[in-house]
Amino acid sequence: MQISFRPLVIGDLPTLRAWFEDAELSRRLSFPTDEWFAHVTNGEAARGWVAMQGDQLIAEVQVDRDGAERGYLDLAVCPDLRGRGFGAAVLSAFLSGPGQAYPILEGRIEPDNAASLACCRNCGFALLPEPDADGFIQAVYKMPRHAFGEF
Question: What is the DSSP string of 39-95?
């Protein structure tokens, strides 16, 4: 599956917002408001991309930077594509593409979100054994050193 990424643009919002009619996605992530869009498109503190397969928008990826080393990752897959391997394909492509800008990526996943936990595990994230203070499972990915030009 050929996946490409491009920065999120204002014209993507109607599509992303329509995805939130899905109860499962709406329960897991926050609705893409105008304030959210400004947050992920106006600087280095956070960035947003859409994942494309051909001309179809299949997922949205957000990373909030925490210092020079760590980024906090959110991934939303088009609800119509759920359960067909798109999450793992997008995450894997992100890790070998735009995600290389982050030495460490971390996701926080609800313990009952088996699909997201499996997706992260299959893409090489370490799942911490105990939930954090907010009850989330932390999934941590450390970028291989060679991705930064070090050997």
Answer: HHHSSSSEEEEEEEETTEEEEEEEEEEETTTEEEEEEEE-GGGTTTTHHHHHHHHHH
Name 3's Cβ contacts closer than 8 Å, sequence gap at least 6.
51, 52, 53, 58, 89, 90, 93
Q: Which residue has the tokens 């460490």?
A: 104
**Cα–Cα dist 45/63, whole Å:** 8
Residue with tokens 């911490």: 128
pTM: 0.91
Nearest CA to 45 out of 64, 61, 60, 73 is that of 64
The tens digit of pLDDT for each residue in 105-115 reads 999 999 999 99
Q: What angle do CA 65, 69, 74 make, to 5 degrees?
A: 40
d(CA 146, CA 151) in angstroms, rounded, equals 5
Cβ atoms of 110 and 136 within 8 Å: the answer is yes
Helix (H, G, I), strand (E, B) or coil at 151: coil
CA separation for the pair 94, 49 (Å, rounded): 10
Q: Which of 76, 64, 151 is nearest to 102 (CA)?
A: 64
